[in-house]
Specification:
The chain has 185 residues and is mostly helical. The protein contains 10 helices and no strands.
Length: 185
């Protein structure tokens, strides 16, 4: 988690041979797992069992402060609907197109970017267009695992920081504001 928060990554000197580096593989796997977790949180409401799983991880528990009982989980599901479905929908096309249209040209451009890099288009979850922030994070996780995250990240950076800032402003002290902070890091 510290690496995602901006800690510098150690680089191998150019004079060293490119040997299998298990610590680099572990970092890559850790980043991919975190990106998958973040994708899940953007793509669907948080149920209590998933909140308990987050609470069991000290770093994620501290960063996100997940709900601890069903009443809090139910309130958070209402917040999900308010924020991610109404106030701050997580689609690139809402930030890159005029007029903003979910599933518009930005969605098609994202799919073309993935196809050009031989990356799978994420399965559509909950009828979300491919330019959904959760799909973007899921694709970044896959790209991290396969070592091509830089190319996908460049496309994501066209709009994702704007969206995450918007979400954080809409929910500055809440779970989704903290989720936006973690995704930004």
């Amino acid at each position: 988690l510290r690496r995602q928060a901006g800690a510098p990554m150690a680089r191998r000197p150019a004079s060293q041979p490119a040997a299998h580096d298990s610590s680099r593989d572990e970092l890559r796997a850790g980043r991919a797992a975190l990106l998958d977790t973040l994708a899940d949180l953007f793509l669907r409401e948080l149920e209590l069992p998933a909140a308990q799983t987050l609470a069991a991880d000290p770093a994620l528990a501290a960063a996100l402060q997940p709900p601890s009982d069903e009443a809090e989980a139910q309130a958070l599901r209402a917040e999900y609907a308010r924020l991610l479905l109404m106030e701050a929908p997580p689609y690139a096309s809402l930030f890159l197109e005029a007029p903003p249209v979910i599933g518009g040209e930005s969605s098609l451009a994202w799919e073309a970017t993935l196809a050009a890099r031989w990356l799978p288009t994420p399965p559509r979850e909950r009828a979300a267009a491919s330019d959904h922030a959760g799909h973007c994070l899921r694709t970044l996780a896959h790209a991290e695992r396969t070592g091509v995250a830089g190319a996908v990240l460049a496309e994501a950076l066209r709009w994702l920081p704007q969206y995450l800032t918007t979400l954080e402003q809409e929910d500055p002290d809440g779970f989704y504001g903290r989720l936006a902070q973690l995704a930004t890091a």
